[in-house]
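Hi R.,

Here's the chain you asked about this morning:
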Amino acid sequence: MRLDYKTLGVIFVTLVLSVDVFSQKISNSSMLALCDTDGHFLHKKELLFTKDVLMGKQPINDMNQSVSETNNNYELAQEIINYSKRFIGSRYRRGAKGPNVFDCSGFTSFVFKKFGIDLSSACVVQVDQGISAKKEELTTGDLIFFKGRSMKSARIGHVGIVISNDDGNIKFIHACNRGVTIDELEKSSYYRPRYVKGLKVLGEQE
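And here is the predicted structure, written out as C-alpha cells:
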C-alpha cells in the first residue's frame, strides 16, 4: 500500500476522534510501513511524527528532516546487509577480524567499518556503542547480543546483525562456529534463550 502525506492527513483527520487508539496501534506494530511520494518507507517513528505535525505539535520542516534521516538510515542498513551476505560461508576463528576468517564481533566490526562506522572488535565493548533497543524495536542493520555458552553468566558473549524483524522473529547474520551464516531467533533453541538486548548504531555515531 502506498500513501502520500496528503492521504495520511485525510486518515488522521478522519480518525481524529480515535487518534490515540490509532497511534497506539502504530506504536505496537513492528511491521507497519507506508510509503511517501518518492517510494521510501515510512516506519513507526515517522507515522507518529506525522500525527504530531497534523495535530500541530511539530513543524512540517522537522518532519521532512526526520523522514529524510530515516530514509538514509534505511538505505544504509540495506547496503550493510547486502555487503555482509558476501561473507556467508567464511570460516570462524576466535579473535579473527577478517577479511576471510571472523569471530562474531570481528565480523560485525569489519562489516560496519566498510561504511565508516567504527565498532570495537570485542562484543563486550560493542554492546555500549549505540542506543539500547527492545526486541520489538529492532530493525535492519541493528545489532543483536547474546550470552555466551554459559546460560548462568550475564556477560555478553555473542553478537550479530539484524536482517529483519517479523513480529519478534528476528533473522540475523553472524559469525559462529559454523562460519558466517544466517539464523532466525525464534527457530533457534540455542540463541533464543540466550538473547540479551539489541542496539541501534546507525545514525547514533558522529
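One quick note: The CA atoms of residues 108 and 160 lie 7 Å apart.

Cheers,
M.
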